[in-house]
Write a structure and sequence with these properties.
Layout (H helix, E strand, L loop, with lengths): L2 E4 L9 H16 L3 E4 L13 H12 L22 H13 L3 E4 L3 H13 L15 H9 L5 E4 L7 E5 L3 E5 L7 E4 L7 H11 L4 E5 L6 H12 L6 E5 L2 E2 L10 H9 L1 E3 L4 E4 L3 E3 L2 E3 L5 E4 H8 L3 H8 L7 H11 L8 H6 L4 H9 L14 H7 L10 E2 L2 H14 L2 H14 L9 H10 L6 H8 L13 H8 L4 H13 L6 H14 L4 H13 L7 H8 L1 H15 L4
Parallel strand pairs: 1-2, 8-9, 10-16
Antiparallel strand pairs: 3-4, 4-7, 5-6, 11-12, 12-15, 13-14
The protein binds one RNA strand of 78 nucleotides through α4, β6, β7, α6 and β16.
RNA sequence: GGCCCCAUCGUCUAGGUAGGUCUAGGACACCGGGUUUUCAACCCGGCAACAGGGGUUCGAAUCCCCUUGGGGCUACCA
């Protein structure tokens, strides 16, 4: 029986890296008909966010990753929140202490720091100096009386090399003495990750630990701890996946967002302003900002709720403010930040099926040329032996291509559900349309790359006539040039006298007019499009006009003619 | 600094464990052309890689070593 787990620490939304880890564990459990456990590693009192566990669960559910055991669903190995397992951890820590396999420490942060600096100066690995005689209970009392913090360290066997057998990397050797004694109980009484993880993996009978390469260095210590605690009982199999890196270098993380914002801000040292508005480019991701403008630094700092000094320090790359500060400033500046969290992708109009498919192919492949795969196919093909060793870069343009394919292959009814959820999340007026109308829109949007595309193209149908925003470029290009307005006026008159207002008669009229004037259909259709939508991008024009209706169409054309007509 | 991991087109990767069938395959991106009422989608074509150096071998993308480059870890975070 295969048992895997995903063990996030609840510090915020689920990000792509975490989602991929969860997915691989889930895929393997499903493939093998095993159990997938969700365990919340909330042992850090300082970092935990009260809502994070819920957010992570929501995101997993959106992706379709269901856990067999864990919060809200229960199971025989609970509780699944580590903060509720303190008795268990204490029991094992005391056992280790009694067996002289762990010992108390009373060091201050400064003392430890000094030791580390010394090791570095000597070009050696840091190794905690284990005392010859382990402190006893009365030493603990003494230390506490002096106001010193008390921690517990595990005595890592130092006389022989530690070997990790990894599914993707094979045998990895760590020389004797290379792994230092590490803390297993913090001074606040909570266990550390390296301890709780081992105990829980044992108690929950985890058979496969699939996690990021960042945990590789923890593994020898964890294995040694396992042996000290559980003797010869077989270790879980480890698979350390490659890391997903970003095009800006380093592992793809939440830090991408502040980085992107920093990149978007051009400092102008002469005056107290920053310049914003040039085209931003990330990997495959392009976002046209508002027209370039200068923004006072003081105002920007105010929006973010930080001091101008803090802003300056951020811009220079010295410090990074909290995420809400970054988000607030980005929104104020009209800068789109690269998606990192799963919800970011949801709000950008990606399908969960796209994310699952794409994430699965980051560091794994089925061995043939298949790429676009539904979940069941992914499950059937998944195999740990095909995990990739090298790090991979998160390519947003390929993700978009995947999304296009998945939108194409999703049945309309299903797509409607996704679209509804998306529209609701981004608070779009399009959500006011009934199912029949949205289904029609979906059909007209064949080839759309994201749900955001569908929203953008159909938005005009759900706005009040006075809410239409005219895009400057569109107005200049199609209305003010080539007799655009004159053509529009003719189209208006022809529409006004129509008894029937169907796609067919609208099409016939426009084609006829184009032929009369000896021009392409675009020359007559585009001015009309801009008049009713404000932009050059919308649903196909005949359907656009028909769906909007005669009355609103005429009203919008009149407004446009009045607004941009030269002689008015 | 120390320890560990990794290295095929711009990107994700196939091929590597059983060296020849690899003048290195696919996908995305890009470029050119077609289609077209916008944006997409779609069709046709093109560009493009075994990091460098040394071995082993009749023969190396594939095995070994070194160099270089990238990444991870180096917390009373997980």
């Amino acid at each position: 029986m295969i048992v895997t787990r995903f063990a996030p620490s609840p510090t915020g939304y689920l990000h792509v890296g975490g989602a991929r880890t969860a997915l691989f564990n889930w895929l393997w459990a499903r493939r093998m008909g095993g159990t997938f456990i969700l365990r919340i590693e909330d042992t850090d009192q300082k970092r935990n966010t009260p809502t994070a566990t819920q957010q992570v669960m929501d995101d997993l559910r959106w992706l379709g990753i269901q856990w067999d055991e864990g919060p809200e669903v229960g199971g025989p190995n609970g509780p699944y929140l580590q903060s509720q397992r303190m008795d268990i951890y204490n029991k094992y820590i005391n056992k280790l202490l009694d067996d002289k396999k762990a010992y108390y420490c009373f060091d201050t942060a400064e003392e430890l720091d000094a030791l580390r600096k010394e090791a570095e100066a000597q070009k050696k690995s840091f190794s905690y100096p284990r005392p010859k005689e382990f402190p006893n209970k009365s030493d603990v009392e003494k230390a506490k009386a002096q106001g010193r913090d008390v921690t517990v360290r595990f005595a890592v066997p130092q006389d022989e090399p530690l070997v990790v057998e990894d599914i993707v990397r094979g045998e990895i050797k760590f020389a004797a003495g290379e792994i230092s004694d590490f803390i297993i109980q913090k001074s606040d009484g909570f266990p550390t990750y390296n301890f709780a993880c081992v105990v829980d993996d044992y108690l929950m009978k985890i058979t496969h630990v699939i996690r990021g390469q960042e945990h590789l260095m923890n593994t020898p210590g964890q294995q040694a701890l396992w042996q000290a605690l559980f003797g010869d009982s077989p270790l879980p199999k480890y698979a350390h996946m490659s890391v997903t890196v970003s095009d800006t270098g380093g592992k793809l993380s939440k830090r991408e967002r502040p980085k992107a914002l920093r990149k978007a801000i051009k400092v102008r040292p002469d005056v107290e302003t920053v310049r914003i508005g040039e085209q931003l480019e990330f990997d495959g991701f392009r976002k046209e900002n508002k027209s370039p403008q200068d923004i006072e630094t003081s105002k920007l700092a105010e929006v973010g709720g930080i001091t101008p000094e803090q802003l300056d320090s951020f811009i220079k790359g010295k410090t990074t403010p909290d995420m809400p500060v970054i988000d607030a400033m980005a929104e104020y500046l009209g800068v789109a930040l690269p998606e990192i969290n799963i919800v970011d992708f949801f709000k950008s109009g990606y399908l969960p099926e796209t994310m699952v498919n794409f994430l699965a192919l980051l560091g794994w492949n089925p061995g043939d040329n298949r790429e676009i795969m539904p979940v069941n196919e992914l499950i059937d093909a998944f195999d740990l032996s095909r995990l990739t060793k090298a790090n991979s870069l998160f390519d947003r343009s390929k993700l978009l291509a995947f999304n296009t394919e998945h939108i194409k292959m999703t049945p309309p009814e299903k797509l409607l559900q996704h679209l509804r959820a998306y529209l609701k999340a981004v608070n779009s007026p399009v959500n006011s349309g009934d199912d029949e109308k949205l289904l029609k829109i979906i059909k007209l949007c064949e080839g759309a790359r994201s749900l955001a595309d569908i929203e953008r193209k159909s938005r005009f149908l759900f706005l009040d006539n006075n809410e239409i925003q005219y895009d400057n470029k569109a107005v200049k290009k199609v209305l003010l040039k080539n007799d655009g307005l004159a053509v529009l006026a003719i189209v208006r008159d022809k529409l006004a006298v129509m008894d029937e207002f169907t796609e067919q008669v609208i099409e016939d009229m426009l084609r006829c007019l184009a032929e009369e004037k000896q021009v392409g259909l675009g020359k007559v259709a585009q001015p009309l499009r801009v008049a009713i939508c404000g932009t050059t991008v919308s649903l196909p024009i005949f359907e656009s006009v028909q769906m909007l209706g005669k009355e609103d169409t005429l009203t919008r054309i009149d407004t446009t003619l009045k607004k941009f007509g030269a002689d008015n």
